[in-house]
Design goal:
The chain is of the alpha+beta class and 106 residues long. Helices cover 34% and strands 25% of the residues. The chain has two domains: 30 residues; 63 residues, Trypsin Inhibitor V, Chain A (2-Layer Sandwich), CATH 3.30.10.20. The model has no long low-confidence stretch (mean pLDDT 80).
Amino acid sequence: MTEEARCVTILLIAVCILGPLAALSDFIFPERMTQVEKVEVPNVVGMSLQEAAPALREAGFGVVGSFTFSEEEVGTVIIGTNPRAGEVRYPGTPVHIIVSLGPTGD
């Protein structure tokens, strides 16, 4: 066996042994595990779309939206969210915002 082949073999054996041990290290040493804290969804109802999206992102949430007509609100105002303001979710969770397009104009 050549020196290069011996080095490759040793490296593969090391990876096969150390890889699973590294994966199990959080179970062997639980104090090292990091826990992600849940975050409260901020109240963005009544804000403009331009205010609400950055506020949700700053709180750690993703933003998805839909538009609807509303007889009570003018255009581009947030009229609802899911999850609702005050509910607690993990960072990165998408918050669905419902944006008013204003009255239908009939």
